[in-house]
Protein 1
Amino acid sequence: MDILTSIRTSFADEYGDARRLFLDAAAGAGAEVVAWENPLSGPHGEPLTTDVAWLGPEDAGRVLVVVSATHGVEGFCGSGIQVDWLAGAQSSKGGASRLPADTGVLLIHALNCHGFAWWRRVTEEGCDLNRNFVDFDQPLPENPGHDELVDAFVPASLDEATLAAAEARLAAWRAEHGEKAFQAARKAGQYKHPHSMFFGGTAPTRASLTLGSIVDAYRLAERRMVSVIDVHTGLGPHGYGEPICGHKRGSTGLDRVLAMYGESTGLPAEGASFSIPLNGTQGRFWQPRLGDRYTYVALEFGTYDQERSRKALRADHWLHANRAFDWDDPEAQAIKRAIKRQYYPGTDSWKEMVLARSRQVLRQTLEGLERFGG
């Protein structure tokens, strides 16, 4: 499909509309769809589901997995990418002839459907899903910087005096410890403060368990090669998509990723990424299940600067921690619009950049699967 047409037809402004676009596109491409239901509902009473579409031979040895909405509100971007790809698949008979031989595509739409619908990055448990993939039977990662600054990251009030005091405290800590330490304190992941940002939880979330069920249902551990693209937004230059990789240097996985995406690959562990090293990311989920028969990247699309992001998250966490939540309350709606805008700019120019880059990365991934999948 022409990209300028797709920017008008692939993206939605509400979770329910995004779901309808995805299901319609999946049906048009001849994909088989299964829904994992969430027992909760959205702000307008709409049902919440993680919908999974499969395209290609049932016994495909090579599988491309594309995940949207790990971070809830970021799903507006990932959903649009999935719908755009499915629309392209409709131009081929059943969609399957668009794929290399022995290759399937698994599209996981709205993994964190609750956060998608309620315009939050976190799950219904209040957890950052991309910090939740840790071994909860082992001691959890410590984040002493967040412990020290938690009341400044998410203060008890958003009044002018409280915010000024919080900003002064953050600025002083930042000046003393440096930017790298500050960003680690803010967003590397923390496991003690449920009301604060980047909380990884105390147990697996419903969404993380759903992902495990999907992997089992589609027998991904039995495939020869699986390549995962987990779509995110909010970090890096506006509209640019960085494939962020957590595979270790010297591993087969990293060699494959570098062959697929070249010098655009982001490597947080080596300081060569817009991201810092993080605890409990989805990459940690795949490795014990797939060994060296997979690649994983978080495809991160930039939106606006990190200070704006920090303040949008601060307001959203305060909103849900310190008052009875009313979706229709004007102050709540202002906070919700700000966080949605931060992670989904929604302009035509941004969407055009997203689709152009995503088409490139998905093509590179399918070519890599064909090359490395045996």
Note: Residues 3-135+200-306+342-372 form a domain with the Aminopeptidase fold (CATH 3.40.630.10).
Protein 2
Amino acid sequence: MNRLSIALLSAALLGTVLPTSAWAGASGLAPHRAVYDMNLGESEGQSGISALSGRMVYDFSGNACDGYSVSFRFVTEFQDVSGGSQVTDLQTTSFEGGDANLYEFLSKTFVNRKLVESTRGTAKQLSNNKEIDLSEPEERTFSIGSKALFPTEHLNKVIESAKVGTPFYAADVYDGSETGDKVFSTTAVIGALRQSPKDASATAGALLEPLTGVSHWPVTIAYFEPTANENGGEQMPIYQLTFLLYENGVSRELVLDYGDFSMTGELKELEFYEASDCNK
């Protein structure tokens, strides 16, 4: 299963939550930690999946001056129609320069507690391309197109498009996932602006109170294999991610659609960190 390539998530009411006035009208991405409960959505017979449950934790910090750090863990237990089960544990950390000239990543995937995949590398923006220096799963250096975006850079571009009312945004994205050598083609469809009601805390509980009055949009992002545009004709995405995206980078109401099955993510905990000063 692919590592998610955009900063989706939000966080837990476990520490000092910034009051709404501290960031509701501010520009930029809010440092935060999010916890989601994952469950099986729809499943077709060929998927072989009878049940699914899990938890996803996303921790995002930094700013445009100092760069952005992400720590991500996604644990899921799959049960098949014959009664067997499998636990997948995906753990990633990354750092992305605020100017999008540097991206460092480490990703490990465990199946039933056994390490089955590890990817580590660094990507740098050069004058006319991006150079990737991998140390795992094998040592090698290669280049990708200069137009490929890093994950936080891509998230910012989607939010910028949403703010100006652009309903469609297409971009190539590099996040170091799988074997670290893929650039995914993506298309984002952005819905109409929504505004959280002032009484959100009364209707949705304290969890969503910090999001009161924050602009957000329904977004669907489709991810395609790197060769998708080379064969011509209509291509099917390898997966689609649908969610509500807030202007500060927080997301909720997740749906991950892999074609023959989907999973939903319900925001259970949300914590905002104190943001450091940045003049950009």
Note: The chain has one domain: 20-272.
